[in-house]
Amino acid sequence: MKTETYARVVFASPLPALNREFEYLVPPELQSQIAIGCRVKVKLAGSSKEGFVTALSSEAEFKGQLSEVIEVVSSLSVLRPHIYQLLQAVAARQCASVGELIDNAVPGRAVRVEKAHVDPSAAPCGQGSSIRKAITLRPHADKITGRPMWLETLSSAATAELELGRSVIVCLPDFRDIDRFESVLKEKLHSDQYLRVDSSGTNSERYSVFLSELQERPVIVFGTRNVLYSPASANSTVFVWDDGDQSHTDQQSPYISTRELALVRQSVFKCDLYFYSHARSTDIQRLIEIGYLTETPIENWRPKVSKSDSSGLDGLSFKAIKVGLESGPVLVQVASPGVSKSLFCAECSTRSTCSGCNGPLWVNARSQISCRWCGNLNLNAQCRECGAKEFRQGGAGVTRWVTQLGKSFPGVPVYEVTREDENTFRPSKPAIYVATPGIEPIVSGGYSAAVFLDGATLLGRDSLRSSEDALRGWLNALAFVRSSGESVVSGISSEIERALTLGEISETIKGLLAERQELGFPPAKRFLSATGRKTDLDKFSDQLSALEHVKVLGIAAAVSQVSDSDYRLVASFPYAQGHAVVDLTRAVIASTAGKQLRVSAKSGRNLRPLTIKFDDPRVI
After folding, report:
1. What's the confidence (pLDDT) of residue 562?
2. Are 212 and 167 in contact (CB under 8 A)?
3. Where are the alpha helices (DSSP H) in 242-347?
4. What is the distance between the alpha carbons of residues 426 and 418, in angstroms, rounded to a whole number?
């Protein structure tokens, strides 16, 4: 006679009411099929819903009558216990629900793929040696292939871990880095020794890769943000490249960066963790200073970079391009894509804004007036102050710089590089490539010179991280330049000049962090933002202020929304108060669940009464 079995089930849903485990009775005929982590169908609120089993027991916690599991959709354990533990830890830190994180960790099921798959044993979950390092690399290109040398360093480190019998998880910013990293791995390893995880494939392809990650064998798993949810063994070594890149931050709930996600994974599983970069972020510098990470800085390196006091194409920049073209291609990096980075009224000089979301207007590469925020075209744009329909262009974007450089260097090919370009490898013939930060193509043997224009524009952007973002972008671009290549940068501050011309990168980042600590800004403290009706925010503000060491910085109209009823609250709090702030926020979200929904001014979709984000980098 079989004993009764009870299953705890969670659902992939963002609804706060479903942010818990539900208990069900497993009927005798399904007891041999059900397993922890498998998909099941159960009854919820009168309808059938698919969920994941998180635990099985012989005793029920609830003493009343329980509903039965309707069906075991698949006996394959896809939500592994250690990944469920990771999701719980991330949800607790970011005030999110486990249900809205499950899709990040478990892709949609593909029946045909699953039937061809053999259910593996659970991946081992041994303890790692808890190495936590931040490694700064010297930026330069391989003298033969022209690829940035960090690719060779990172792939060699991952291969060494694999040879020791450990799986490796490598997190990269975007598809360009993934393509390049894969091309290096192909030269070192057999195709069954590494797995690429990204969103470009079909659902069947993604699910097939996911099932391969479940295998017990050591493997290198690489991809963008969601690769850190990989079900590879808990003691897999984790590498994160360039944690300061904005692509590492999730734009949807839980709004967490891969840096924080990697740190959560390391704290839960005690695995080895390495942060590689050319210019470490202030967040990593804080962790070094409190002793959580050990550092490996660049030793005895002085970049071949000269400073130009001009903001445009002056004599020094012109000479660097001219000399560089004698031996190969030249990279010119500018701040903005398109024809013009901004538009101003020709009559009253008011900056032009989008009719839909109040975002800034610009002229894209197709000479169309569009919004930088929502991307909508504003074909009938007019000035909101005086009603004029004539505009003048602001600073030049890539498209206009290509035209100007073509006139300055007649007979030399000048190429505009855009984010849509899939060809990230170019020939080594003398030419000028004009690009914005982060999309530089590789040329065989590396660039003979690089010129960085619009330095003042990048440093003057309305962002707390403008200085470190600009420095990171320039150093990453130097990784495409051959060791003998000369570079020129224009319009930079003295603190950034020391980093670029003297190689004092660590000292510069330390200075930026000291400024944040003095002001109480991230990463010295964590930030929370809440958007909603002012009456709701006033009440939330009073509750936050009652917590020790939590400071409400203010409530102001939300500039990105058309509705006057939308306001935003911003608060700061120490890392040690994170759990208390999350607990309070969960209670506030639950108390507003029954209130009238808001409507998004951009998409027209319904929004919760309060939209709350932790650690949003765009807040300040």
Report:
1. 41
2. no
3. 258-269, 282-289, 315-325
4. 14
